[in-house]
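Minutes, project huddle
Topic: does the predicted pose make sense with alpha-D-galactopyranose bound?
PN asked that the exact inputs be recorded in the minutes so nobody has to dig through chat later. Recorded below.
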Amino acid sequence: MQNVETLKAKFNEIYGQAKLRVFRAPGRVNLIGEHTDYNGGFVLPAAIDREFLAVVAPTNGGEVKAFSMNTNTETKFLLSDIKHVPGDWGNYMRGVAQCLQNTGIYLRGFTAVISSTVPMASGLSSSAALEVLTETIFEKLDGFHIDPVDGIKLCQKAENEFIGVKCGIMDQFISKLGKKDYALFLDCRSLEYKHVPLSKDAKIVIVNTGVKRALAGSKYNERRAECEQAVSIFSKHKKGTLLRDYDLNDFQKWQNELPEVVRRRAKHVISENARVLDAIDALKAGNLELFGHMMYESHDSLKNDYEVSCLELDTIVNTARKTPGILGARMTGAGFGGCAVVLAEPRGVERFVQKMEDDYQKEFGRKPEIYVCTAEDGAGEIKT
Ligand code: GLA
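Predicted holo structure (tokens), as shared on screen:
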């Protein structure tokens, strides 16, 4: 937990004395179900104990000012004149403010000091967390009520339209609706969701490759287009609008009609949806070995068929496979760098961390950052 008092002191120093309210929004790790959300499929993320924290005071003017303790920079904008400022971290806040105003909601300005322990551009959803934080601040300060799922959709819209990244809905969803000690099973088509209890016999360990991935500049949008191409071919045989509408039987029947690359993309998505359902059954049955096995299968599919892994991520997963006490591992998030998630028996954590540091050092000449995480609640106000 970051220190609220430090943020308050900074606020007083920059903006003067004010009665401050405190808000938080967590990053996330996805346990299984990768690149399925924008295909209307299934995901199983958890909110983590790496989060954005903000101390905030409402103002009467129509201006938002926020100081980041991480970058030591201030972002500011007038609510009546929102424009994208290239390279400014405040764009995530601008996007959310604009989307809220577009629904007819009247917003007042605020002043904030923000700090975050979610590593940036590392696949743990720092952008979604900042969007959800902003939406939560406006909602609480301005006293309007918005259905959580509508608020989530609005944050996704901000990312899609204002930032220009065609992400799915998983990251915003879990940052808002995470639950302590639970993962969240989400059907990304119906948006029905269920919290699934995580076992005390498994620890979530995240290994950060340190390879930065800029989602907008990556192959993310290209993958989406390839999935759409597969649907356009499958839909000649069976009605459907998203890869979610097709199962492994359908794939077997019509796979040869797809261009080779598109065939492998579709194979990943369709098999991954099936793996999520199997993984949840395994979790519910307390079969952590099987859950871990699904994670490894997911990784192989992302590596070989979806082609979004990288050498660093594969190295982490290989080390996990060789370490006693490790149940499973896979890349998490969009890929192309970022983080891997490892599921470990409590007794296996220490040994894995040691082995991981050694292997990574040998291979890449540096140690990776490793976070042993807990599953946490979604965004909200902290009463102090
Ligand atoms: C990013 C996106 C998500 C999802 C994952 C891949 O995190 O923001 O919507 O598509 O990649 O599963």
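Observations noted during the meeting:
- The pocket of alpha-D-galactopyranose is lined by residues 34-35, 37-38, 167-168, 170-171, 333-334 (CB under 6 Å).
- Residues 260-284 form the longest helix (25 residues).
No decisions taken; revisit at the next huddle.
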